[in-house]
Write a structure and sequence with these properties.
- By secondary structure, the protein is of the alpha+beta class.
- The chain has one domain (4-117).
- The chain has helices at residues 4-16, 59-66, 71-77, 110-117; strands spanning 27-33, 36-42, 47-49.
- The chain has a three-stranded antiparallel sheet with strand order 1-2-3, with no helix packed on it.
- The longest helix is centred in the N-terminal third of the chain and has 13 residues, at 4-16.
Length: 118
């Protein structure tokens, strides 16, 4: 159970649709042609052609290390980073009174957390 069941279910759905997952291998480059992704180069030198690439790494790392150098990578170097948010939109078949709509879970010291964003 737990949150990882979501990942497992998505993998089953994706594989049934023809998606190939490669595990335990680092990507060294995301190949693009203009604004179109072409695939990825793996640390062992293999090139995997792809119609889409999902980069789950830190966004600045992707722009600065995996994508060809461009203005966006340079802009990333000047950014100030803060905490992030993850949102879930659940479709459930029964009410959960302990979790009303628009429930937020905040850091213990939420004021300091918010101040770090601004």
């Amino acid at each position: 159970g737990g949150m990882y069941r979501i990942v497992e279910a998505l993998v089953v759905i994706a594989e049934a649709a023809g998606v190939e997952f490669v595990y335990d291998t680092a990507v060294t480059q995301i190949a693009v042609n203009g604004a179109t992704v072409k695939g990825v180069t793996l640390e062992d030198g293999r090139f995997l052609q792809a119609d889409a690439v999902v980069a789950n790494a830190d966004l600045p790392y992707v722009y600065q290390n995996l994508l060809p150098t461009n203005g966006t990578a340079q802009k990333m170097e000047r950014k100030r980073y803060s905490c992030s948010v993850i949102s879930f939109f659940w479709g459930v078949d029964k009410p959960y009174p302990q979790l009303p709509p628009h429930t937020l879970f905040l850091a213990d010291d939420y004021r300091e957390n918010f101040d770090s964003i601004i």
